[in-house]
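Please check this chain.
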Amino acid sequence: MRFVTVREFRGHSGKVWNDLAREKEVVITSNGKPVAILSAVSEGELEEALATIRRARAIQAVEKLQRKSVRRGTDRLSAQEINEEIQAVRKQRRE
């Protein structure tokens, strides 16, 4: 996988596009940090590729929430405790 700076991408986008066909993915960086991924895709694969990316992002978000829950200790709450917390928040919102 190739890493390309935003500046390089702006100045040499044609070369990056040509390399994308061979590399399959190119990571765009700004100030040394990744900001985007270019991924080669054909017209027939577009919808499937987008759906796959969206699923991966959803899985990532759930895993992040699970790690946060473990750190806070809220992963050990009972169903009753969860329901009580929900009721308390709903009550607070009504007030």
